Amino acid sequence: MKRLVLALLILAWPALPAFGQSPLMQMAPIRVLADFDAAIGHPAMAFSIGIDGETPLEYFLPNVSPGSRLEVIGLGVGARLDDGEPTFRWRVVPMVIDITKPPWNGGVTVLRYDRTGLRTLEADWIATHGGPSGRIALGSLAIEPSLILRAALASRRTGHGFFPDLPAQADDGATGAATSAGARVVLSGASGFRLTATASVERLWAGPDPELRILGAALRVPLGSVWTLVGRAAVQEARVGHAKDRTTVLGFGLRFSPHSGRSV
Question: I want to staple 228 with a disulfide (CB 3.0 to 4.6 A). Which of 203, 243, 245, 263 is the partner?
Fold first, then answer.
């Protein structure tokens, strides 16, 4: 599998310049991503680099909120280190649409396969989400709360990398229906910064019925016209069967959008 993914990346690389001139990539220019996350209290960390095409939809659609986006053709590679032992990780994300336009939010994810996150495997074969949203303007600041309900045909494997106290079942993957409920508050300003606070609970209704509960925040700060710095922190609690483990994670990322007037 690793050789197959590497071969696909090598074969796809020469096509990127031509693909970048297609109508789709003119709307969603190529973006370079780098991310790093580390657990507090035990030696687990993950890092990845990748590319995708992203369009901030607030520049094209009227009255949509900051953070509304179209992502296409995401590819990434990276590594996870647990007690100093590295393992190869990768992701493929063909398409994500996320739109918030009060009083509603909604979106679709198609064929997202991600092994670079805190869980060993997180894949959404098809997913949709939606719920009510609001907007409060305070001068140049906007506060936008949302409730988000999500349903997916998904595969999950929690793993022991970031949740070492879970039983052996944590390494058992399963595929089935995944449902989640969450809340999100976005604070954004005219300078382009965006602070997002989230709380969510997700359950996979298959295998050992794993759950993941997240309370986190992410801050995005533009650095000039094409760079963005991302800082994030989260407390995540994974449950497998009757066992649970909690991990606090700190991370940061960089976004580089060379063909965009503004990085997001």
Answer: 263
